[in-house]
């Protein structure tokens, strides 16, 4: 809550360790868990990204509007399920996404997937800052600086709240989410009053550009799977599995359906391939300010998650590591990465879902448990590598890479990794080949309690 954030600010100079502590290397205790009405605005802040608004037009331009909306709905249901899988494990253990990967892949085995996820967080931030900078300069052209320079300034300035962990995210989200809802509602009103509905419904892409329904679902899944697969970073603060389900499905599906439909409509009506610029044009100062808030609430979430990843990689607390992450992001903001966003989404859609497949297979299907590590001493995982997880991840990613878009490669990759992990584990149990290593370095399988 905002009061918690103010208290952290007061502690910054007297007790900086307590002010900046975010349980990044351990388990969130029950005493620090948050109610579901706190989780939802933080999740909404993570989801309300200018770069996702940009991606919306990419999808809207390759289908009729009816297919676009249907694809959005089913794609968002899928990514909500991914978020819930990771979120429930995060809630039960109190661990961030990256410390969960240490549990499932081993200390050294987790380094590669965590590194990839760290790079994606930094890449998204570089895109978000340049999108916000262009929208601001479209309205405030008298500022008279290059978009890349403004993006670099934003990359530094918007990092502040991320240093204070969950409470910092909660604080800023309570201001930005209402502003964004009003902004998108105003954009929708402007479209309706200008007769844009008929134009939107009449839009049909050329035959060479048109994509089928399943390809639209696949693109939506690819757009969101990187972010939603990190849900444990936030909902590890939840009090129950029920709160995780409510926070995920209650945040992702309605909010993104609302934002994507309007973002796609704005892009079609204004003609901007970047609908953030269209919103700025439709609403002027109000639109530009709202997109600035969207950038802030998303950039701080991305920094927060990147800091957690860096903590897992280095085994150090995230606050000083964030300084380096901010510097790298600011440097990348000089490059306009929006030009490669489609290729970037395809890469994420191949690499990330199989990671979730490993977690799903191990925790929910095979039900292996290591209670001491999972709830008390994740730091004790120091030297293990789980070959079964690595094999399943690579297999899932490879299958997804060669799956046509119409067959939804992100989902195929997740399911393939799930099947591969179970098969490798069964093979490891049946033959004398060390294909599986538990977090404690042993090859023993520990079953879940009967009431799990």
Q: How would you portray this structure in words?
A:
71% of the residues lie in helices and 0% in strands. With 452 residues, the protein is mainly α. Helix 15 (285-314) packs across helix 16 and helix 18 (353-365) crosses helix 21 (409-430). The relative contact order is 0.18. Mean pLDDT is 80; it is low at 446-451.
Task: Write a concise keyword list for the protein shown above.
globular, 452 residues, mainly alpha
Give a summary of the structure in a few sentences.
The chain is an all-alpha fold. The protein has helices spanning 2-11, 16-20, 36-47, 50-60, 65-93, 97-105, 111-139, 147-157, 165-193, 196-202, 213-228, 232-235, 241-270, 275-283, 285-314, 318-332, 341-351, 353-365, 371-375, 387-401, 409-430.
Q: Helices and strands in order, then pairings?
A:
Layout: H1 2-11, H2 16-20, H3 36-47, H4 50-60, H5 65-93, H6 97-105, H7 111-139, H8 147-157, H9 165-193, H10 196-202, H11 213-228, H12 232-235, H13 241-270, H14 275-283, H15 285-314, H16 318-332, H17 341-351, H18 353-365, H19 371-375, H20 387-401, H21 409-430
Helix pairs in contact: 1-9, 3-9, 3-13, 4-7, 4-11, 4-13, 5-11, 5-13, 5-18, 7-8, 7-14, 7-15, 7-16, 8-16, 9-13, 9-15, 11-17, 13-14, 14-15, 15-16, 18-20, 18-21, 20-21
